Amino acid sequence: MSLADNHIVSSFDDDLNQLADKLAEMGGLCEKLVGESVDALVRRDIPLARRVIEWDRAIDRLQHEIEERGIMTIARRAPVAIDLRQVVGALRIANDLERIGDLAKNIAKRVVALDGQFQPPKLAGGVAHIADLTLAQLKEVLDAYTRRDDKRALEVWTHDGEIDALYNSLFRELLTYMMEDPRNIGFCAHLLFCAKNIERIGDHATNVAETVYYVVHGVPLTEDRPKADLVSADFD
Amino acid sequence: MSLADNHIVSSFDDDLNQLADKLAEMGGLCEKLVGESVDALVRRDIPLARRVIEWDRAIDRLQHEIEERGIMTIARRAPVAIDLRQVVGALRIANDLERIGDLAKNIAKRVVALDGQFQPPKLAGGVAHIADLTLAQLKEVLDAYTRRDDKRALEVWTHDGEIDALYNSLFRELLTYMMEDPRNIGFCAHLLFCAKNIERIGDHATNVAETVYYVVHGVPLTEDRPKADLVSADFD
Which ranges does the record mark as transmembrane (chains A, B) (predicted)? Predict the structure, then answer.
């Protein structure tokens, strides 16, 4: 369906509710895929990884639907102020959720690619730990969005620094495993990217927090992310 | 400036031209920063890397301006068909260019972080090679967009597979350097991420190609990127 031949006849509030429903569906799916991609990595569950890869298409479809519906809403209702920010906020969050789905899919693709390679089980533990923290951040910020709770969004925004710090120590830990035993190098290199993907999921949760703040206050929270300083961003 | 208090009085064509000017500025800046970030990596030029990090802010500002102007254009002119696709296309491309700027900034941050570390010069050569190919793709697709040339866009879209193949062999090459000499591990791990950032810049060039096709034809090129198969995406 092209942007041109869409026929929405509902009122602005109906448009907004439909956007909210699709975003909630998208957010729930993202949480599911992020959790399952890491489970697949830890348990080396190839079928689960393949399901995650397949399900990411549904997230992409939802993002296209939200973009289309949001654009049509702006074109038909010409909303202003808070109404406009609600629609723009939905477009921005759908964009971040689509990226989160891609990152979960990338982890799942590595699980498939790693099948049969030498994989010391304990090494994936650190990745699972940072994933738990990141998933909690994602759930929290999506809840903050649903409630338009700028204070909870601000907390998520602030706590992203912890994920970055955890990622940086995990990065060093994985390098140590590589130096200890060259047989670890291939697997650890993939784990480095999995950890990086998870850290980036945290960044997108931070973007969502900034969008919640923008929707509520009408001004950007800040130009810089908490991680934007050179110290914590060493391993971007 | 919030989305609410913007006062555009120009005609739709003026709006479109202003969007085009800002996009051209953004595209030129992205090409510059991608090239300079890799130069900084190869030459270990810390001051250049710091300038890239600083300049990325300008790209972010342009993306916000384009989003704001594009949204206001849709709200005020309620364009349809090709007119609407022109605006939506500008919004999508600005989004990809903003990501490209981030990726160049990430490479530059690594250059700063790597300062003083053991860095065998020859190792960065492979990264420079994939960067040249990617930069050529970026220039080509931005030119294709300016001319609304869907055939050239399609060529860029097709050639992304070469960047992925090059990245995959570079990935294996860097792992070999790690196994040869543990002192290479730290530096090569950073190079792995630099190479990955460049490969992702290629993905965003591919996204731009898809947007050019969409603007011209009004239908999506495809749901999948050329790299979306599991073979070439082993190292996503």
Answer: none
Q: State the amino acid at position B30 in one-letter form.
A: C
Quickly list H helices, A116-184. Answer: 125-146, 150-180
Tell me the C-alpha distance between A200 and A73, whole Å.
30
Run of H or E including A83: helix A81-114
pLDDT tens by residue, chain B, 236 residues: 445 444 444 599 999 999 999 999 999 999 999 999 999 999 999 999 999 999 999 999 999 999 999 999 999 999 999 999 999 999 999 999 999 999 999 999 999 999 888 788 788 899 999 999 999 999 999 999 999 999 999 999 999 999 999 999 999 999 999 999 999 999 999 999 999 999 999 999 999 999 999 999 998 886 555 443 333 333 44
Specify whether the CB–CB gap between A126 and A174 falls below 8 A.
yes
Polymer length of chain B: 236
The CA dihedral of B96, B98, B104, B106, to the nearest 10 degrees, is -110
Mutate to test the interface with B, among A61, A178, A197 (most CBs of B within 10 A): A178
ipTM: 0.88
CA dist., res. B99 & res. B199, Å (int): 12
Dihedral over Cα of B132, B133, B136, B137: its sign:
negative
Delimit the domains of chain B by residue range. 10-217
**Angle CA B95–B101–B102, to nearest 5:** 90
Q: Which residue has the tokens 């605006």?
A: B87
Query: For chain B, what is the largest distance between any 2 Cα atoms, rounded to a whole number of angstroms?
Result: 64
Give the residue from chain B lying closest to A60, CA to CA: B223
Collect all residues of chain A within an 8 Å Cβ-Cβ radius of residue B186: 175
- Determine the CATH number of domain B10-217: 1.20.58.220
Cβ–Cβ gap A3/B84 under 8 Å: yes
| Residue in B75, B179, B189 nearest the CB of A74 | B75
Exposure string of B45-80, with b = 16+ CB inside 10 Å and e = fewer, is beebbbbbbebbeebbebbbbbbbbbbbbbbbbbbe
With contacts defined as CB-CB under 8 Å, which chain A residues touch B236?
Answer: 105-106, 109-110, 193
Single-letter code of the amino acid located at A62: L
The C-alpha torsion from A37 through A43 and A46 to A48, rounded to 10°, is: -50
* Cβ contacts of A79 on chain B, cutoff 8 Å: 75
Residues of chain B contacting A234 with CB distance shorter than 8 Å: 109-110, 113
* Alpha carbon separation from A206 to A2, A33, A225 (Å, rounded): 31, 18, 8
- Write out the E strands in B100-183: none
